[in-house]
Design a protein that fits this description.
- With about 260 residues, the protein is α+β, with helices and mostly antiparallel strands.
- The protein has 2 domains: about 140 residues, 2-Layer Sandwich (Fructose-1,6-Bisphosphatase, Chain A, domain 1); about 110 residues, D-Maltodextrin-Binding Protein, domain 2.
- It has 8 helices and 14 strands.
- The strands form 3 sheets. Strands 3-4-5-6-7-8-9 form a 7-stranded mixed beta sheet, sandwiched between helices.
- The protein is globular.
- The protein starts with a helix and ends with a helix.
Length: about 260
């Protein structure tokens, strides 16, 4: 299959899952909430949305491994695989905060190939395929052209699950507060990356993430002309679970701060 065809599959799967999320959000007061781990939650809506995504992928891309947060987080495989977060922003969803998304990516032997982040409440679809640019709907998007941090608006996420690096993170947080025009913490890494890809945010950094939090958004930023690395400047953000993403001219300034505060474990 061509990347165009694979992107179409991801779009259809994301929109189908988004319909489940919209319906569930309207009925969230009746949801039962399970605790997967400390500060990590799952609802039946997460699972239903994931089952919808998996059904589409298995029907239209049979045989491809699927790495999905709720059903098969350990099912990593070499070669082509789908990386799925059916509800990125579950804590927001549970509390009625309207900031969450479906995130679907395809990775092959070359790297990230397709990425879709769908915001079902705003009906915004951010999508990209390798070498084809990044889009919101049909409009081409681009990362910021800023070169310095002083006027930049930066997104981040708190390391809320594993607090062993909290002190280092707070040091980075302070450095960015002092260096920029502001920081935002919205609670959905995939949307933070989508917003970075379209220039709403000038950059994004976070630690303690999983591959399904990052995969689709990382491709969006790269295809929008940005640069994506780990907080220490490495390339394998999915394996390490840390990220610095920004426009090409701004990324070095962000990376300088994260290297000093977060670049070593």
């Amino acid at each position: 299959m061509t990347l165009d065809a694979l992107e179409s599959i991801a779009l259809d799967a994301a929109h189908a899952a988004g319909a489940v999320l919209r319906d569930g959000f309207a009925k969230r007061d009746a949801l039962s909430v399970e605790v997967k781990a400390h500060r990590d939650y799952v609802t039946e809506v997460d699972r239903e949305a994931e089952s919808v995504v998996v059904a589409v992928l298995r029907a239209r891309a049979p045989g491809d491994p699927i790495v999905a947060e709720e059903s098969a987080p350990a099912a990593a495989a070499a070669g082509r695989r789908w990386i799925v977060d059916p509800l990125d922003g579950t804590t927001n969803f549970i509390h009625g905060v309207p900031t969450f998304a479906v995130s679907i990516a395809l990775q092959d032997a070359t790297g990230l190939a397709v990425g879709v982040v769908y915001d079902p409440l705003r009906d915004e679809t951010f999508h990209a395929r390798r070498g084809g640019g990044a889009y919101v709907g049909t409009r081409r998007i681009h990362c910021t052209a800023l070169t310095t941090l002083d006027t930049a608006l930066i997104a981040t996420g708190f390391p809320f699950r594993d607090l062993r690096r909290l002190s280092a993170y707070l040091s980075a947080f302070e450095r960015f507060v002092r260096a920029t025009s502001g920081l935002r913490r919205a609670g959905s890494a995939s949307l933070d990356l989508a917003y970075t890809a379209c220039g709403r945010y000038d950059g994004f950094f976070e630690i303690g993430l999983s591959a399904w939090d990052l995969a689709a958004g990382a491709l969006l930023v790269s295809e929008a002309g940005g640069v994506v690395t780990t907080v220490g400047g490495g390339a394998d953000v999915l394996a390490e679970g840390t990220i610095v993403a920004a426009g090409a001219a701004l990324h070095p300034a962000m990376l300088a701060l994260t290297r000093e505060t977060l670049g070593t474990r």
